[in-house]
Amino acid sequence: MNVDYTGRQFDITPKIRKEVEAGLAKLVKIVGENCSSKVILTAEKQRRIAEITVTRRTKTLVGHGEATDVLVAIDEALGHIEKQALKLNTRKRDVKRAVKATWKREAPEPEPPVAVGAKGVTAVPVVVHKFPAKPKMTEAHLVRSQESVAIQPMTIEEAVKECEFRDRGVFIFRDKKGIVRVLHRRKDGKLELIEVP
Q1: Distance between start and end Cα atoms, the chain
Q2: pLDDT digits over 158-184, tens only?
Q3: Which residue among 16, 54, 127, 132 is least crowded, i.e. fewest CB within 10 A of its CB?
Q4: CA atoms within 13 A on the CB side of 92
């Protein structure tokens, strides 16, 4: 495992490196070999802060520890990472098991093969597929409404106001000349004027 050390107002001694590497060696058994880690040790007045980040292929595990002694802070941070890794591994295992347990596909009964050929010796088995006679179609649900049709002739401006007032996607009206027009609300919210021949 690759380990990068950073000390902020703190000297990293060989004893601290050995402690960190021993803790990460335990994590390698849980996380696996393909990972890298960064260790940031900080000293602030009486506090010692250890932040350890372990990066796997898909996930990043972060542990944060704070204490008066740096070794205690490191152990705390490693404990947090260990909990995260165990939780992640059990989650993966549970998801995989649930999918495999529920994945049971019943194979349809095979159709008896049909033999094609003049004699039984030269006949070749062929499987015949059956398609449904009628495709399944759902009936359209129709509701009759007179709210989208104007009875009296009106101008385009009046029709737009009426369409907005009635809150409809389609509004049919006649203009002053008697031509049938349709106002249609597009998906972007704009009104489209359609003249019916």
Answers
A1: 76
A2: 888 887 777 777 878 888 888 888 888
A3: 132
A4: 10
Fold of the domain spanning 156-195: SHC Adaptor Protein (3.30.505)
CATH 3.40.50.2300 is the classification of domain 2-100: no
Distances (CA, A) of 101 to 94, 98, 104, 112: 10, 5, 7, 31
Instruction: Assess contact for 127 and 116: CB atoms under 8 A.
Output: no
The C-alpha atoms of residue 110 and residue 90 are separated, in whole angstroms, by 40
Q: Could you tell me which residues are beta bridge partners of residue 53?
A: 38, 62
Place of tokens 């009046």: 158
Per-domain residue ranges for the chain? 2-100, 156-195
pTM (predicted TM-score): 0.46
The answer to whether the beta carbons of residues 77 and 52 sit under 8 Å apart is yes
Three-class SS state of 170: strand
